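User: Hi! I'm working on a homework problem where we have to compare a predicted structure to a textbook description. Could you give me the structure for the chain below?
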Amino acid sequence: MQKELLLKTNVTEIGQHIGGEAGEEMVKRFFDKHPDIAYGHVIGKDIIQKILAQPDCEGMLIFPSYDNVGNMHLVYLGIDSDMKPLISLNIVNADGTITSEEALVGDNSKQASDFVTDSW
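Assistant: Happy to help. Predicted structure tokens:
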């Protein structure tokens, strides 16, 4: 048990600042290798904040996906501290009863190429 606790990743600490130059180089390498999917996605902060504000949410999973006509999108959802997707949430109502609600799952991102005109 102690070893398991020492090895468990703290979800809230995943990710780090790499700087603009390193980020731009990494994106350029990807775009050079995959020119057919060389674009990013824009996601507004409102949906990100709503997902992260859900009970037990410690981070997000972001998946590439296709809509029903074949356009590339992202699907994003919250994860708990065990990196399990938040599919439903237990909500305690004002009268003390507990109900289950569907957790937020986001889409409808926009391709960055629709907005960004510079290299990044």
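For your comparison, note the following. Residues 24 and 120 are 7 Å apart (CA to CA). The two ends are 46 Å apart (CA to CA). Good luck with the assignment!
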